UniProtKB/TrEMBL annotation:
Protein name according to UniProt: G-protein coupled receptors family 1 profile domain-containing protein
High-level lineage: Eukaryota, Metazoa, Cnidaria, Anthozoa, Hexacorallia
PANTHER family in the record: ADENOSINE RECEPTOR, ISOFORM A, OLFACTORY RECEPTOR AND ADENOSINE RECEPTOR
Gene source species: Desmophyllum pertusum
Span of domain G-protein coupled receptors family 1 profile: 48-273
Record keywords: Cell membrane, G-protein coupled receptor, Glycoprotein, Membrane, Receptor, Transducer, Transmembrane, Transmembrane helix
């Protein structure tokens, strides 16, 4: 009789876990697609963010720039997302998780995503000041100012994460994400307009036949890349509460799907903010050559 009751408790416990896991409501196709996407994000994002950190730390010219600290700060958050959060997310959507594991994963992911978004904003703000306010850049971007910006990004991420402990659906975070995304896109558009105006001013000093203004230049590409990435990665989760009610049974399923796109930003950031610039590509090549020479010397 005791054995039978124990079996009943075990089966009921198992069915409860299955019911909890199936409550995500994701189809088999969605699970496979999200798993493949996040696996690629984890591998590509880990490699690319490590290369960014190495290029900045090992190259003296990059270390001396004010943007270096902001890039390392951004890459740090993105690297943890790719190496820690993405595998946990893949495990969760395939096998489910207990209440404790789910709470830890949710709070950690919440803080990492907010920190990554703040890192993107810090890099954007740095470049906005250097292009639109070049005479103020040297005076403003000192060590104390850089440290304050990095400290503020961490403080905001930690504070919002602590506030999320008070509710399972931190709706204020969606508003915060929307505001930051609008500011990032607006700053890039302003940088494009200033660069275009400056290019026209310089070109006006040359004959008309030498004045060429291709719209699809580097500045336009940068704006297009940032806008496309923001729309793809951050907008879905920012507008989700307006599309699906948080009290709806399908809200958790939508969160699971949209988080896959949000994680994509951690793998895309190095290409948008670093590798599209020739300085970083040259610095990376120089670092790789140094590492190869060191390995050869040790082998010999």
């Amino acid at each position: 009789m005791n054995q039978e009751s124990a079996d009943n408790q075990t089966s009921s416990h198992g069915s409860a876990e299955e019911e909890s896991f199936s409550s995500y409501g994701m189809t088999a196709g969605e699970v496979i697609a999200v798993t493949v996407l996040n696996s690629g994000i984890s591998v590509i994002g880990t490699i690319s963010n490590i290369l960014v950190i190495l290029a900045v730390l090992l190259n003296r010219q990059l270390r001396q720039t004010c943007t270096a600290i902001f890039l390392i700060n951004l890459s740090f958050f993105d690297l943890i997302i790719c190496t820690v959060y993405a595998p946990m997310y893949i495990y969760d959507i395939n096998y489910g998780s207990g209440a404790t594991f789910e709470a830890v994963r949710f709070r950690m992911g919440f803080g990492l995503f907010i920190g990554s978004l703040n890192g993107e904003f810090s890099v954007t703000l740095d470049r906005f000041i250097s292009i639109c306010l070049p005479y103020c850049y040297v005076a403003w971007m000192r060590k104390i100012c850089i440290t304050s910006v990095v400290f503020a990004s961490w403080s905001i991420a930690i504070s919002l994460t602590l506030l999320s402990l008070l509710t399972d659906t931190p709706l204020y975070s969606f508003f915060y994400i929307a505001v930051i995304i609008i500011l990032i896109i607006s700053f890039h558009v302003a940088m494009y307009l200033v660069s275009r105006r400056e290019a026209k001013r310089i070109a006006s000093q040359y004959p008309p036949e030498c004045q060429k203004f291709p719209f699809w230049n580097k500045s336009a590409k940068a704006v297009a890349m940032v806008a496309a990435t923001s729309l793809l990665c951050w907008v879905p989760i920012a507008i989700l509460p307006a599309v699906v009610a948080p009290s709806s049974p399908s809200f958790k399923r939508c969160i699971k799907v949209t988080l896959a796109f949000t994680s994509l930003s951690a793998a895309v950031d190095p290409f948008i903010f670093c590798w599209r610039l020739s300085d970083f590509r040259l610095a990376l090549c120089a670092c790789l050559r140094k590492v190869r020479c060191m390995i050869r010397q040790k082998i010999k």
